[in-house]
Amino acid sequence: MAEAELMVEPITPQDIADRLDRGDQRFKEIAEELRCLPQMQADMAAVREILEALQGLKTLGRVIAGLSKVIAAVGLAVGMIVGVFKLAVIAVTKGG
Predict the structure, then answer these.
(1) Which sign, positive or negative, has the C-alpha torsion 84, 88, 89, 90?
(2) How far apart, in whole angstroms, are the C-alpha atoms of residue 94 and residue 46?
(3) pLDDT at 96 over 60
(4) Which of 20, 25, 36, 63 measures 20 to 30 Å from 81, CA to CA?
(5) 0.85 exceeded by pTM
(6) Rounded to whole angstroms, how far apart are CA atoms 64 and 73?
(7) Residue 82, SS3?
(8) First CA to last CA distance, the chain
């Protein structure tokens, strides 16, 4: 059985320099793509603040809706009491 010889081309210093240049260029491209990252983070923070404000408004709306129900119930109770007193006054004045 014959041994297979591997044909390996020698790597020259120019090959290494070319590869390093390609890597350097890729890092520059990545850095360029990431340049807008701080602005994107600021935009996300602004969106988060808006969402928190809207959540607060939603909670405020629920509180107002609950208070309006309480106010309506109190108004109804006051109206019923006034009505009963008016009926009592009418009954007393007619019956007296």
Answers:
(1) positive
(2) 71
(3) no
(4) 63
(5) no
(6) 14
(7) helix
(8) 135
